[in-house]
Design brief:
Number of strands: 28
Radius of gyration: 22 Å
Oligomer: single chain
Largest sheet: 6 strands, antiparallel
Shape: globular
């Protein structure tokens, strides 16, 4: 295993070690190896076709098998930032959540403090996510509110075991989507309201195990945007009825096993502010999907954006099958998200097909250039499921004929064959645009850069346009 840059080992147990650090007033650059004049993990790549990329260690791995996962976002309008930090020891399960704040766009930070746990229990059930007084949302000038999508997952039994069995076709957790509103620029958040696409009872806080609630309105929440026409859009992966003989040859694994006889497809919720009820009234779009024989795990991790012509672009993660390669899929709406056109795989503007693993991707519009960009993994060969999750690219989106402008393709990071394992993951990143410099910041942990998957550093990438 290659050495971890500026790594600091914690003494004693991981939880007690981090708890101790969180309680000190020492700033994290002295604790976790953030910044520093002699940081030889910092490099400036040559100018790309879109931007120049600066890479640096943000938080060094504190001890073996304890990968720091950091996130960054603005809270409301203005320059108030929040940085979050947790540690990963197994897939999709984080421990020891910390956060710190800055009122001046990240120049001066408060000390790290423990985040009150959101995980709650009720008998054999464990809740992860759900309503909280943390996080940020899109600002809607019509309502004067921030709108925050909320993802909630309820496990039966051990979360670690439930996450493992999901890939074997047995699911012991249930996902639902909510939203919260803030009318004081993110200082406080109101109650959580559930998003529904079918009739069901409301959540009963006295009985988490009611299957008539657990198994209805399941969804994997996507992103949200505020449209120029005053609507709010929240995207979501949901079960859509579809069954045929060819599809039965493919195992139904998450998220396709949300419901028997269904595949994981996509819908959008369209919200309009109602002054009388002081809340949003929601409509749902048509549903769209591809069969399991085309994408073995359906469509998930949705990203919706508004194009310059007013149309909406929905990009969706897919997965390969025995007969079809892994790709990113898209659909276009010309009526504000109510109706979505047929799904197709996204190509380069040259007409060439591109391959992409089952990994997260995001779009954003640069305030500096005015252009829409996509960030994600593109593979030179057909991927196998989640891998390879490299290189990580940024590419301009052709908004008139939705596609990726091949001549703009720019590498953000790639696997170093001399140091990184073949399973290094350049994915699952946080993204924001600096409101002062208008540069873009990406925060990402390079899981798998060492033989021990979770012995990895968290990095910051600055994209200078």
């Amino acid at each position: 295993m290659k050495p971890l840059g500026r790594r600091t080992f914690l003494k004693g147990s991981s939880q007690s070690g981090i708890a101790f650090l969180a309680g000190t007033r020492v700033f994290p650059e002295n604790l976790f190896g953030i910044g520093g004049k002699n940081n030889n993990n910092t490099l400036i790549k040559s100018n790309g076709k879109i931007c120049q990329v600066k890479k640096e260690v943000r938080i060094a791995c504190p001890q073996l098998s304890l990968a720091p996962i950091t996130g960054m976002n603005y809270i409301g309008q203005g320059m108030r930032r929040e940085e979050t930090l947790s540690f990963m020891q197994s897939s999709d399960w984080h421990i020891m959540n910390l956060s710190r704040g800055s009122e001046d766009n990240g120049h001066i930070w408060s000390a790290w403090v423990p985040v009150p746990t959101q995980t709650q229990t009720s008998g054999q059930y464990i809740q992860s996510g759900g309503a909280s007084q943390r996080g940020d949302g899109q600002y809607d000038p019509v309502s004067g509110r921030l709108v925050k999508p909320v993802f909630q997952r309820i496990f039966q039994g051990s979360p670690e075991e439930a996450l493992k069995t999901a890939w074997k076709g047995k699911r012991l957790f249930w996902d639902h989507g909510f939203y919260q509103l803030s009318k004081d620029n993110g200082k406080t958040w109101g109650e959580a309201f559930q998003l529904k696409y079918e009739e069901s009872p409301d959540f009963d806080p006295s009985d988490w195990g009611k299957h008539e609630w657990l198994e209805r309105n399941e969804m994997y929440i996507g992103n949200s945007i505020v449209l120029k026409n005053g609507s709010v859009i929240i995207s979501a992966t949901v079960p859509i009825p579809y069954k045929n003989e060819e599809d039965e040859k493919y195992p139904s694994i998450f998220p396709n096993n949300y419901r028997e006889g269904c595949v994981a497809g996509a819908i959008c919720f369209i919200g309009k502010w109602d002054d009388e009820i002081q809340n949003y009234r929601w409509e749902k779009s048509n549903s769209i999907f591809v069969p399991r024989q085309v994408s073995s795990r359906g469509l998930v991790e949705l990203d919706v954006s508004e194009l310059k012509n007013g149309n909406l672009l929905l990009i969706m993660r897919g997965s390969n099958t025995l007969k079809t390669p892994g790709r990113k899929w898209f659909s276009v709406s010309k009526d504000g998200g109510h109706t979505w056109n047929d799904i197709t795989d996204i190509h380069y503007d040259t007409g060439e097909q591109l391959y992409s693993p089952a990994s997260i991707d995001k779009t954003f519009r640069s305030s500096k250039t005015g252009k829409l960009y996509w960030i994600g993994n593109i593979s030179s060969e057909p991927p196998n499921g989640d891998y390879p999750r490299y290189p990580l690219y940024i590419v301009e989106v052709d908004e008139d004929h939705p596609s990726f402008v091949k001549d703009s393709l720019t590498v953000i990071d790639n696997r170093d064959p001399k140091q990184d394992t073949k399973n290094v993951q350049l994915s699952n990143f946080a993204l924001l645009e600096d409101r002062d410099t208008l540069n873009v910041e990406i925060y990402m942990t390079r899981l798998g850069e060492n033989v021990d998957t979770y012995s990895a550093n968290a990095y910051k990438y600055t994209l200078v346009f």
